[in-house]
Amino acid sequence: MAKRLDILVPFLNERESVAGFCALAGDLAAQAKERFGLDANFIFIDDGSTDGGGALYGEHMTGDWSLITLARNFGKETAILAGLDRSEGDYVLLMDADLQHTADVALDMIGRIIADPDLDMVYAIRADRAESRTLGRYLASGFYWLINMGQRYEIPANAGDFRIMTRRFAMALRQLRDQRRFNKGLYAWTGFRQERILYKPADRQGGESKWSRRKLIAFSLEGFTSFSVVPLRMVSLFGGGVAALGFIYGIKILLEVLFTGVAVPGYPSLIVAVLVLGGLNLALTGLVGEYVWSALSEAKNRPNYIIKSMSGPSAVPLAQTRKTGRASHDD
C-alpha cells in the first residue's frame, strides 16, 4: 500500500485564498504521488471563521479531504492539535491557507524526510526578514535568547508552523495536551532528530495577517510562562540588586551621621525608595500572576477544543471523536 501524507491546514477568515489554495493543493497532491508515491489527504481546520470561507472548500477541492469546524476561535496552536488528533498519515505536513507556503518548498521538505529514515521533522525558517523593522528584529532576537537561556533544547528563531513530521513525531506531539499552547516550544521539547531549511514565503494573495502586535506580545508571554523561568529569576536578581544597593546606601548615611554630623534630607531618598521598591513589587506580582494563571488554566483540565461539525469526503464521524475522548457537538 502507498504511504499516506496528511496535510493539515488551519485557517481563520481566509475566504479570498480558498480557490488559489485548492489549486495549489491539487498540484501538491499530484506531485507528491508522482515523485514520492504518497497519497495526499488534506485536513482543513476552520478556527471559528466568520466570513463563510469554510463552505467554499466543498466547491473547489477534489480528492481526499475533510473539514473540521471548531465551535469558536481557539487559536491556531489549538487548531493544529485538532488536526493532529484526526490525522492517521505516515507523514504530517503543516501549511497555512494564505498561499505563503508554496508547493515547491513543501515538496523539498517531503523529499528530505523520506530520504533520511532517522529524520523525524523538517521545518522551514524564513530567510527573508527584510520587511521587519530593525527594532522588531532586535526584539525577536532578544526573545529567543531569553527563552532559550538555560534550556536543554533550543527553540529555533524565525521557525513557524510550516513543517513536516513523521507519524511517530505526530503521535508524540498529540500526547502534549497543554491548554496554553506554544507550538514552537512543544516542537523543540518533543525532541527527535530535526532539520531546518531556509525559504522565502510567497506574497499573501488576499486578506490580512491575523497576527497583530498585541497578539504577538501575548503569544510571546505565553511562551515565557510555558517554557521559561528566566523572567522570574531576572526580577529576583534585580530585587536582590536593589536591596543590596539600599543596604549600601543605608551604611553610607549612617557613617555620615556618626562621623561628620551631616543630617541627610530624608524626603527625596524616601520617595525614591518607595517608588523603586513599590514598582518592583507590582511588576513581580503581575509576573507571578501570569504564571499562576497559566498553572490554573492547566489545572482546570478542560478539553483543548470543541468540534462543531465535520464535512468532506474523508470526514470521520463525530461519534469516533467521543470514543477517543475529544469534545464534540452534533449539529
Distance between the termini: 36 Å
Kindly state the number of beta strands: 8
The Cα radius of gyration reads 25 Å
Overall form: elongated
Protein structure class: alpha/beta
Provide a descriptive summary of the structure in words.
There is one protein chain. The protein is built from 11 helices and 8 strands. The protein has helices at 18-36, 57-60, 76-86, 103-115, 134-147, 167-174, 183-190, 213-227, 230-259, 266-300, 318-323; strands at 4-11, 39-46, 64-70, 91-94, 121-126, 159-166, 194-199, 307-311. 49% of the residues lie in helices and 16% in strands. With 331 residues, it is of the alpha/beta class. The protein is elongated and about 90 Å long. Strand 1 (4-11), helix 1 and strand 2 form a beta-alpha-beta unit. It has an 8-stranded mixed β-sheet with strand order 7-5-6-4-1-2-3-8, with helices on both faces.
